[in-house]
Write a structure and sequence with these properties.
single chain; Neuraminidase; disordered N terminus; globular; mainly beta; six-stranded mixed β-sheet
């Protein structure tokens, strides 16, 4: 009897949260609008911090991505140093892979990392406009360029297919813009199909900004597109848009702008926009973790990307926002869920990597 009495308020709380979520369906697509969920807890202290002290004076320049190998090692892409840094599970520095350059195994701004099922490492080599593949031990294997495509954010599915985030736009070069959101390539880097469409706007710059997103893949093969600069998370099932998720944010994003700045005879274009998401990942239960800015002084004029804090949003499998956790003391720039659902965050200010217990 005591056990039943203990469970009743939990069930009522869950039902109350679920009932406050607005769900509608338009043309076969479910739209889920989450109300603001109060910040109920603070992220615990990290159990591991990887900084310059771990790297034998190999200083991090700009951490752009990190992945965990099947052996539990951590591989870090450093855009500013133009290399990859490898650490063991305890945070001890192991080796550097690659150097700056244009040759095989060399990088100009390694941007994103992925793993094939056999452990091969895939790197989007942004400055050299190519993907590079390395053995699990870090030995260079091959380089590939995707025809008319940009080596940006990507993921790899269980069949070793590369799913690449398309750039989608053209700034006045006379070519028709590719409005697809995602492109899927086989393991021979041949284009198989296109999925989704870019956000619509008359201004190509707005299309580009609005369509930036991080990609995740569920165990069922569904693709999740978590948009960086608009309040939207898309779920694609069998290559079709099935679900669109939004939530009430803690701040009001500024409208993206592309400004022309003239300094004497020099003219430069300055992009001004305010991200809504700084990355996402799935845990073993396929809950979606999203890093979102939190601004205590919402709706005021502020400097570009000058936030007072950040939160970690956790959505359940149905897209319902379940928990909001305060992130204190760091400015997170990327997120990864590792083995055992350990949470990894990178701190943009100190260029460190922090590992937290499973939430």
């Amino acid at each position: 009897m005591k056990k039943a009495l203990f469970l009743i308020p939990i069930i009522m709380f869950a039902c109350s949260r679920q009932n406050s979520v607005k769900i509608s369906e338009i043309n076969g697509v479910s739209y889920i609008s989450n109300p603001r969920v109060p910040i109920s807890e603070t992220l615990p202290e990290p159990e591991l911090v990887i900084s310059d002290h771990n790297t034998n004076n190999y200083v991090f320049g700009e951490i752009s991505d990190l992945i965990e190998s099947p052996e539990g090692n951590l591989l870090v892409a450093d855009m500013a140093a133009h290399n990859l840094k490898k650490f063991d599970y305890q945070g001890n520095f192991l080796e550097i892979i690659g150097t700056e350059g244009e040759g095989p195994g060399e990088f100009r701004e390694p941007y994103r990392l992925g793993l094939f099922s056999d452990g091969r490492i895939v790197v989007s080599d942004l400055g050299n406009q190519r993907f590079q593949v390395f053995s699990p031990d870090g030995v260079y294997l091959e380089s590939r360029k995707l025809e008319s495509d940009y080596p940006g954010k990507f993921l790899i599915d269980n069949q070793n297919m590369l799913i690449n985030k398309s750039m989608m736009i053209s700034f006045g070069n006379g070519e028709k813009a590719d409005t697809s959101l995602i492109k899927v390539y086989d393991n021979d880097y041949r284009l198989l199909k296109k999925i989704g469409t870019a956000q619509e706007h008359s201004d190509p710059f707005q299309v580009w900004i609005m369509s930036m997103c991080d990609l995740e893949l569920t165990g069922r093969g569904d693709i999740i597109a978590c948009y960086n600069n608009i309040n939207r998370i898309d779920f694609y099932q069998q290559d079709k848009l099935a679900k669109v998720i939004s939530r009430e944010l803690f701040f009001t994003p500024v409208k993206p702008e592309l400004k022309t700045v003239r300094d004497g005879d020099t003219i430069t274009m300055k992009a001004s926009y305010e991200p809504v998401s700084f990355g996402c990942d799935l845990d073993s239960s396929e809950r979606l973790y999203v890093i979102t800015p939190y601004d205590l002084k919402a709706d005021i004029e502020r400097d570009d990307q000058d936030y007072l804090g950040f939160v970690l949003e956790i959505f359940d499998q149905e897209g319902v926002l379940d928990r909001v956790i305060s992130i204190k003391g760091i400015e997170p720039s990327s997120i990864m869920i590792g083995a055992g659902d350990k949470l990894y965050l990178t701190d943009r200010n100190t260029m460190t990597i922090l590992r937290y217990p499973a939430l």
